[in-house]
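FAQ: What does the model actually see?

It sees only this:
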Amino acid sequence: MQNLMKSRVMVIGAGLAGSEAAMYLAKNNVEVVLVESKKIKLNPAQKNPNFAELVCTNSLKSLDPYSAHGLLKAEMKSFGSFIIETAEKNAVPAGDALAVDRDLFSQEVTEKVRHHPLIQVVDLEANNPIDLKKQFHCDFIIIATGPLTSKSLEEWILKEVSSDDFYFYDAIAPVVDADSLDLSKMYFKDRHKDIEEGGDYLNSPMTKDQYYAFIEELKNAEKVQPKDFEDWKFFESCLPIDLMAERGPDTARFSCMKPVGPEPDINGKWPFAVVQLRKENLLGSAYNLVGFQTRLTYKEQVRVFRMIPGFEEASFIHLGSCHRNSFLNARNLLDFDLKSKKHPEIYFAGQITGVEGYTESASMGLYVAIQLLRRMKGELPLRFPVETAIGALVNYIMTIEKPCPSNINFGLLPSIEFSRDQRKAGGKKLKKELVARRAQEVFQSFQSSIR
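And it is asked to produce this:
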């Protein structure tokens, strides 16, 4: 009889999910072969060969323990998340959010993974996981190839695992050089945090006329067109700013340009809309335009974004772009522990399973590693309660009829009884707090039961 604890695991992909899974298993004395192709060839969204590269933004979102993202991070930390630990060590100021210096974060992940004695890193492109499994004498596979799975591996997955198309389009926001901004037209303040003076976000306020002129130019600007074989299907929570403009003149003003938490001008007038910028690194030498993912051509991005107050002479370090995301119809193709129904020795982790977002992707890498380790010990898979953040994410991807990537949000957790008096007293804020408290209690009880 095979000693499962002596089994070797192949992890394909060293993104957030793959790095998280590899480190969790290695910390639990499991030999890991980590296959990564970045040194061979970068995909269209990647900029460097380091692991766990953050390609869209440097924010891992809220740390608030009563927010859905805060709940997810807390659950991951309780299981010893390598990704959250590294993110906290490389954090940059971002109010209640966990944002990181992208370069330092990825460098540390890469160094720790490559130097772990139980992880063998193999720099090559995975075309056929089954063949690689045999070549490197592995017993199990975790495919965590993220939003831009290579064409050859995608073809293998389509042929061997899924006959369905599995893709989605995402967009990347531009990054601006801080020294090129006119700070006299901007100020520091957090949107959702009551601070009398200062803040972690740089704000550029707009008047009504400035805002509508900006939206009109976003609508009319030249955009990168999809290829003949492409069908741009965007994730609703990460829409390009120009697509928001096309949906209606006030769409952006109720989204990323919402005038919440700004300051009045010298005449006492409040901004009609606000553009927020978040630090890209600890030095504050670069800023990410929050929510400004875009399909505009590079030339048009420079022209239109220089309409933002303070951006008249802006120099852009990175311009925005669109890229293709891959994901499976998990409900039809995977078991609840995210192993393939057709190939039980193969697990899928990260965004390819149907979650969206950095923390969500890493959490699925952690989830799969936990399940696989239990299997190696001869234990049954764990059913995470749906009242918890991790459990809610898994439940979502395993039950949604028409696959659509989702971030963690309170809508995924079961509703809670809410009296009329409670509704009057605290409204939505109180309801979210009650759901969060229940999630924390259920998770603590759940984790205690498996120790």
